[in-house]
Amino acid sequence: MLRKITGSNGELYGVYYVVFGSLAGYDRLVKEYLWSGPYDRLKTAVNQAQELSRSHQNDNSFVVRKYKDET
């Protein structure tokens, strides 16, 4: 679920799915896809990344990064 947080003065965090090599595309070695977020609490984002990893057969491609607003 994606949600936009407005009016937050602090840092925002997102859970990104990272792909490497040929999955990232012809001109990229690494590409990140926003999977969930943004979250205003780091702990919430970390918990979500851990839950996504568990629910996807312990896939360690889910990482927490500072949210990048791409709009």
Concise overview:
The protein is an alpha+beta fold. 20% of the residues lie in helices and 32% in strands.
Can you put this structure into words, describing what you see?
The chain has 71 residues and is an alpha+beta fold. Helices cover 20% and strands 32% of the residues. A 3-stranded antiparallel β-sheet has the order 2-1-3, with helices on one face. The mean pLDDT is 82.
Major pleated sheet: 3 strands, antiparallel
Q: Please give the radius of gyration in angstroms.
A: 13 Å
**Could you tell me the number of beta strands?**
3
- How far is the first residue's CA from the last residue's CA? 17 Å
- Strand content is 25-35%
Strand order in the sheet with the most strands: 2-1-3
Helical residue percent band: 10-25%
Number of helices: 1
Low-confidence stretches: none
Helix/strand/pairing category: alpha+beta
Strand and helix order: EEHE
Mean pLDDT: 82
Q: What coarse outline follows from CA principal-axis ratios?
A: flat
Question: What is the secondary structure topology, with strand pairs?
Answer:
Layout: E1 13-20, E2 30-39, H1 42-55, E3 62-66
For the structure shown, list the relevant keywords.
single chain; 71 residues; alpha+beta; three-stranded antiparallel beta sheet; flat
